[in-house]
Amino acid sequence: MDYEIVIGLEVHLQLNTKSKVFCGCSTNFGSAPNTQVCPVCLGFPGSLPVLNRRALELGAKVSIALNCQIAEKIRFDRKNYFYPDLPKDYQISQFDQPLAQHGILTIITGEAEKNIRIRRVHLEEDTGKLFHQKDSSLIDFNRCGIPLLEIVSEPDMNSPEEAYLYLTALKSILEYIDVSDCNMEEGSLRCDANISLRKKADKELGTKTEIKNMNSFKGVKAALEYETKRQMDLLEDGKRIAQETRLYNTEKGVTEPMRSKEEAHDYRYFPEPDLAPFNFEKSFLKAIERDIPELPEPKKNRFIKDYLLSGYDAGIIVSDKNTADYFEKCASLYSNPKTIANWLIGDISAYMKDNNVSIKDLNLKESYLSGMLKMIDNGVITGKIAKTLLIEAIQTGKDPEKLVKENGLEQISDVKLLEAATSQVIAENPKSTEDFKNGKDNAIMFLMGKVMQKTKGRANPNKVNEMLREKLKGAR
Predict the structure, then answer these.
(1) Helices (H), 293-442
(2) Is residue 410 a part of any domain in this protein?
(3) CB-count exposure of residue 54 (10 Å: 0-12, 13-18, 19+)
(4) What's the pLDDT tens digit per position in 328-365?
(5) Which of 252, 172, 174, 188 is nearest to 219 (CA)?
(6) Residues 335 and 421 in one domain
(7) Stretch (H or E) spanning 2
(8) 3-state SS class at 126
(9) What is the pTM of this model?
(10) Are residues 420 and 386 in the same domain?
């Protein structure tokens, strides 16, 4: 490919506060339209904003976690534009003196690390929400004044995959520091993407388009993949790329024009006269810094060192804070961390994905998983039985040990029973016996599978293997 893809992302994060950023209205999601409003967030004449201290704390917490330089002096500005969901006709935001700048977020691309620069982090208020109908449009102002943190990256990503990795890494950090629920369906985490293409030899950036209306990280990736191909086809045909804002149509899998953006919008920013500029006290920032927990990257390195996990396994487990906490609790109860990791990354992860649940939603206590793994080690149940047992334990919330007793799932090690089963299988499968006689050792695996079928997965696999080999020795 002769072109280089250049991508920058703007992430809008709703902060976990009980009240709005400049007034005392509730931030609860799902309330009846226009029931969480007051003169301040509706912009009534004479109303005065008061900054929510908690929103400021959470914004600073994000900035520190992203290795940003927090500004010595903070100022708010009025961003002026007219739109139906903006009752004041301006938005309180930050312009030339944002909360923080010049941060770094590291992503793993294959085996290599890549630093994505954070241009700025600033605090602002959200707008209302429009609902378009056939003959009218309705407005819900409940979102007006919700505290938002905008995290703007530099255009350092060079593929849709890198954009996806950046977003997942960012979300992981935000969940670790507990500043937002990051629920994209409820609008707590929103993303706009800027993308342009240029010849690899060129230094100047190409004409960019902005993509909106993406409600998942996979959607962001898909939209950028489509837009990459669209722009590349235009350039190959010698056509001009229009600077515009586009929407992603999830049903069609395409981006579509929303509005032209030939020139940068002049928002006529000016300092917010009702909010005085201020400086952070060092003690304020130190207290926030002390409150930041162990983040994903150092936790991953510790898991590799302390639990001897591979970088891949550790990376998957620590990407979700709840999974990492669950793993550590299991590791305190069961002595083989690698086995715990295998079950978490394999069967448990598959169940969560198929049922769209997280690990905290499972009815699987850490002691239940640890106890089940001990039963496998002690020969009480087979690995095959354990897979079925796991699902039943999750669905019923019962202790696997109790389920084994209730359902009679104990592993069969009785010599007489195994003798009968192996003899019967050998008699029923003469071809496999002949294959083994001719040196095809894999035939033993086929016969073992048949024995496991007859015993409904309860036969002790090691003993079955020994018996089959002993009985078939004479067949060679």
Answers:
(1) 296-307, 311-318, 321-331, 337-343, 349-355, 366-377, 383-396, 400-407, 415-428, 430-437
(2) no
(3) middle
(4) 999 999 999 999 999 999 999 999 999 999 999 998 99
(5) 252
(6) no
(7) none
(8) coil
(9) 0.84
(10) no
